[in-house]
Design a protein that fits this description.
heterodimer, A: mainly alpha, B: mainly alpha, flat
Chain lengths: ~500, ~170
């Protein structure tokens, strides 16, 4: 117990880690707030720079960026009606009308306090649930991992896009990209076409920077002419009465955030939209009608998306399955630092778990401090014109890709994936599932082959065991439901 | 961005390419170890490529059924250019490609500086003095931070590198 507390407080007592967490949170708020810069983009680029760092230092910085970034998106949603991040889409629905009424300061203040509250609920859920999930995960065999990984891809494909088929395509493409190189079980060449470069595989960090950095920058050119509207920002600290009034709703929507965040593949953006929908249905007398500046419309999505951060860490640390695109990137970072996220992580390196919980708590406190200060400077910085901002992001992306192996080939991969990502985005494909596929693909490949080998390559037995093992059966049911719920047949049945 | 029902210009061609690519990858995956065993290294890539082919075909059919709505007096190519490849985007993408290719030759500092000062006005930043200054300051910050804090060795450039002082390599 004392040992766990020691690890929990590690980032609080070490001045360097304290500074890195603060820096991460501060940077995260700005990165999340500036439209065109996403947390996933920032974490993807950053990971390539932190290879040589101590893993704790890298995690302290990333925890801050993640929490700060999820929150930061709300500021531009309120001030400019441009969500800085997808998780802030719902925030703008009531946040911007509030700003137009001259209540931008109060809206930002309330959002900050509620985000921190939601963040703590998420972290608490992580601290309590992760050890339990981890114990359960020890019972998971290759079959369960196969189903879980498949479910993750299907969930992200179905929830974050408008077309399930395009979502599955993206996930399968990512899994296929991950196959390029030497087969980890036999050492045989796969999809290398005789190229030595391809034998080493394709760096998923280069792919991530390409899909989330370069593609996003190119896509942003369509919105170059969007002009910012200046808002009056004053009275930031919200009255206690206003906060207290919304704590009940925030607790409910934070719970939604934790659960959705913990689902493999579903993250803060979906949690925020579901929480907003919940608030609309459950709050009988909102402060104003929803969509016209209701405080409830701010509280629900903002508590949920920050709570989803803690939730997303649960499957990541206990199962090695990412909760969303950012945690997919963080899993990549853990692998690079020689750690293997999964049930054994909690047993072999419990200090890492408590360190992450401690860093997230610390980042959440910094979020409160930075969230309630410096709004006026912030309002100026987010107005940085895109013609200046976009080329700078490109340069950072190039440095990030080059830093992976000091090899220009990674820069070319990044460029290729960036151009592909742009076309995919424009034609309605999600790029998130591609990255998830790259992380989950090797897990599925290995699990499938291990499960099949355990049955002596008996296809009948392999299929039967999905139904006869309770854990597999539950996961299979969840997977089937995810697919069926996307069909027109199910939607018609539900509407009856 | 993409809207659900009307077809975007070039979407059908893109979907057809997606299907062709998926079919090629299915063949390439099959070539790894054919059907020698159900756990052979080629099985999982084959499953992925098959999933891509099936879902790609589904998207192709859906796209073919959707209607391409052209604005008044606008041709297919004009709409493709306006919605997907406006001149600014094409020029900027060309600059990105040139930048990435010249990174090794001119080195990080020179290539990045040229890229920044050329691309900013291409994207519409007309204040040339400000562009030069912002490029210089941010590059200096990036160079110092990444060289010191992140220990990233940036390319000095085969053409320019030999003439740079040691500090800037």
């Amino acid at each position: 117990m004392m040992e766990a507390l020691g690890y929990f407080l590690m980032s609080w007592l070490d001045i360097r880690m304290l500074a890195l967490t603060a820096l991460g949170t501060f940077a995260g708020i700005y990165i999340g707030a500036i439209p065109g810069l996403s947390v996933t983009m920032a974490v993807s680029i950053l990971i390539s720079f932190t290879f040589k760092w101590d893993v704790n230092e890298a995690l302290a910085l990333i925890s801050g960026i993640y929490l700060g970034g999820v929150y930061g998106g709300s500021r531009t949603a309120i001030l400019l009606n441009i969500p800085g991040a997808p998780s802030a889409i719902a925030t703008g629905l009531d946040g911007y009308p509030l700003a137009k009424r001259g209540e931008a300061g109060q809206a930002i203040g309330l959002t900050t306090v509620i985000s921190v509250y939601g963040g703590f609920i998420g972290i608490l859920a992580l601290a309590v649930a992760a050890p339990a999930v981890s114990s359960l995960a020890l019972k998971f065999g290759p079959r369960e991992y196969l189903l879980l990984a498949l479910w993750g891809i299907l969930l992200v494909g179905s929830l974050s896009g408008e077309s399930l088929s395009k979502g599955i395509f993206s996930g399968a493409l990512g899994a296929l990209i991950a196959c390029v190189g030497l087969d980890p079980m036999t050492g045989e060449q796969r999809l290398t076409f005789g190229s030595l470069q391809l034998s080493a595989g394709i760096s998923y960090i280069a792919a991530m920077i390409g899909f989330f950095g370069v593609a996003e920058v190119i896509a942003q050119i369509h919105d170059l002419k969007l002009k910012a509207i200046k808002q009056n920002v004053s009275k930031i600290i919200p009255p206690w009465g206003l906060v207290r009034k919304h704590l009940g709703l925030a607790t409910r929507t934070s719970t939604i955030g934790v659960v959705v965040g913990a689902l493999p593949g579903a993250g803060g953006d979906i949690a925020a939209l579901m929480a907003y929908d919940h608030a609309k249905r459950s709050v009988k007398n909102p402060s104003r009608p929803f969509g016209e500046g209701a405080y409830e419309g701010l509280v629900a999505p903002e508590s949920a998306n920050n709570a989803a951060v803690g939730g997303a860490y649960v499957p990541m640390l206990t199962l090695g399955i990412p909760g969303d695109a950012v945690t997919a990137v963080i899993i990549g970072a853990l692998y690079i630092h020689g750690l293997k996220p999964g049930p054994m992580l909690m047993i072999e390196t419990p200090h890492l778990f408590w360190f992450v919980v401690g860093s997230l708590c610390l980042a959440n406190i910094f979020l409160l401090i930075f969230g309630l200060t410096g709004i006026k400077i912030f309002a100026k910085i987010v107005e940085t014109p895109k013609p200046i901002l976009l080329p700078l992001i490109l340069v950072l992306s190039a440095v990030g890709a080059y830093a992976i192996n000091n090899n220009p080939v990674d820069v070319y991969w990044m460029l290729g994936f960036g151009l592909l990502g742009y076309l995919l985005k424009m034609y309605g494909f999600q790029v998130g599932p591609v990255i998830l596929g790259m992380i989950l693909g090797p897990i599925m490949d290995r699990s499938y082959r291990q499960a099949m080998l355990s049955t002596g390559e008996d296809v009948g037995l392999f299929v039967t065991e999905f139904f006869t093992t309770p854990l597999s059966a539950i996961l299979l049911a969840a997977l089937v439901f995810t697919v069926v719920s996307q069909t027109g047949w199910y939607k018609r049945l539900r509407n009856r | 961005m993409h809207t659900s029902h009307p077809r975007l210009p070039g979407e059908l061609t893109f979907m057809a390419l997606v299907v062709l690519f998926s079919a090629f990858m299915l063949w390439a995956s099959y070539s790894i170890s054919q059907f020698t065993s159900i756990t052979s290294p080629g099985v999982f890539p084959m499953l992925c490529a098959a999933a891509m082919l099936v879902t790609g075909l589904m998207s192709l059919v859906k796209t073919a059924r959707a209607r391409l709505v052209l604005d008044d007096g606008e041709g297919w190519v004009q709409q493709l250019v306006r919605k997907l490849f406006p001149l600014q985007l094409v020029l900027f993408t060309g600059l990105i490609v040139a930048y990435m290719l010249l990174l090794e030759v001119l080195g990080f500092l020179v290539a990045s500086y040229l890229f920044l000062v050329i691309s900013m006005p291409v994207l519409g930043s007309r204040r040339i003095g400000l562009n030069f200054l912002v490029s210089l300051v941010t590059l200096a910050v990036i160079f110092v931070v990444f060289r010191t804090a992140f220990s990233v060795v940036l390319p000095a450039g085969s053409l320019v590198g030999p003439y740079l002082p040691e500090l800037l390599k």
